[in-house]
Amino acid sequence: MLDSFFKISERGSTVGREIRGGFVTFFTMAYIVALNPLILGGAKDSTGHYLGGGTDGANFAAIAAMTALMAGLLTILMGAVANFPLALATGLGLNTFVAVGIASKMTWADAMGLVVVEGIIITILVLTGFRTAVFKAVPQQLKIAISVGIGLFITLIGLVDAGFVRKTPGTGPVPVTLGFDGTLVGWPIIVFGFGLVLMIILMVRKVKGAILIGIVASTLLSIVIEKAFKIGENYLPGGVVNNVFGGKLPDTYKGETIRDAAGNAIVYTNPKGWGLNVPTVPDSIVSTPDFSLFGKFDVFGAFQFEGVTIIAAVLFVFTLLLSDFFDTVGTITAIGTEAGLIDKDGNVPNNNKILFVDSVAAVAGGAGSISSNTSYIESASGVGEGARTGLASIVTGILFLMTTFLAPLVKVIPYEAATPALVIVGFLMMSQIKDIDWSDYGIGIPAFLSIILMPFTYNISVGIGVGIISHVLIRLVQGRSKEIHYLLYIVSALFIIYFLQSPINMWVS
């Protein structure tokens, strides 16, 4: 019954592969349950209130519980309705924009109301066929470039989250560096290297479950290391010594100090610490979930001219809409290509259903007060493990639902144990680059720009936007305007507006 419903055999998979793939996807993106509360919970709205709390702090437990609940329900919906190996959760980047760019201008309820409005609009675009039409209008080879660019992007995410690549301290000419100040230090980096090497060895030896085995083994190693050496986190909340510690470091400080030009200590860090979760065995693995944030949104509040103009509110919605719209297009293309589910025109099966579930996720995220939910490129790690159907998504979704009660257990997995999977998947996605016709400038240059800008700007939508705009421009210069789908003119115009938001905002204000 499972085989026929999910077409497991038809897609060259097995139930075992789907289950393993579901587990790997969950382990690779479970960090969002811990990270989303830090992002949303660290920001105040225009009234000085934190999300789900008062003026003294956010309700972190409620944010974590709703993050896990929505991820679970929406990922199961994706698997059951669209039969696609794609997981959903609160979108990184989108949540930062909501916390910093929107909530600071209005109340949290109004900000989440804008997210709901964006979700409703994008759902309408799906139901009218516009979103699907845009997806099909993008040339096949540009879709391949988008997939390759996302592969490089998630590789960089893996390297950055593991601490293998970091921002250069201070304001030096080099934007990023190897490890901390040009060197690899600390046990967490060793755990990352161990996991990466182990996955490579297992893949070369064609061992089933290579990625999953690597994550589990690295997590166990990290628990042992933390127990033995008491490493701790690699940062402290606040981080600015002058503000938090009055310019004096606490006696317990064991990390490094970044100083300004005058020699004053400005940042308190522990570069040898764990990236997000400290891998310690919790006293209790069960917690009671708090779903009190559900329904705490106001659809019309942001449009009542209190704090922001209606034009500014519309621009906020437009920014969310464009980012959500094209990030998902890129993610679906990348996952479908890696899974071998793309047809000759670059389209995936059940495309309309996939886009519909993704659009509903935006509405659900706003309704749950946890920011827009969207498709996760980390799903590629599950595909790399063999996932090809929606059964893997259902497995991932069930694990997220369990997380609402088992949140302490999720925090055992450090970044350094999960991120090697992203590097491996990035390698797998790079193989498609050979199918791009680099001799055709109308394809080669846009493909090149898409590929490099996604990791260099840390933004999928930027890569897609520049790729589409340059494709249209070059085809016009070549006198081949008949090859340009009319929708790409519209998309190019929208992206130009998107890139010019700052001067537009200045003009409006």
Q: Care to describe what's here?
A:
One of its GO terms (cellular component) is plasma membrane. The chain crosses the membrane at residues 21-40, 60-79, 86-105, 111-130, 142-165, 185-204, 211-229, 299-322, 391-410, 445-474, 486-504. Belongs to the nucleobase:cation symporter-2 (NCS2) (TC 2.A.40) family. Azg-like subfamily. InterPro entries: Azg-like, NCS2. The chain has two domains: 2-234 and 270-290 and 297-508, no CATH class; 238-268, no CATH class. The protein is built from 22 helices and seven strands. The chain has helices at residues 2-6, 15-29, 31-41, 60-82, 94-102, 108-127, 130-137, 140-161, 187-204, 210-229, 241-244, 310-338, 351-367, 379-384, 390-403, 407-410, 415-418, 420-430, 441-457, 460-477, 486-499, 501-508, and strands spanning 88-90, 165-167, 176-178, 235-240, 256-259, 265-269, 373-375. The strands form three sheets. It has a three-stranded antiparallel β-sheet with strand order 4-6-5. Strand 2 and strand 3 form a beta hairpin. The longest helix is centred in the middle third of the chain and has 29 residues, at 310-338. The protein is globular and about 65 Å long. 51% of the residues are buried. The model is unreliable at 236-254 (pLDDT under 50).
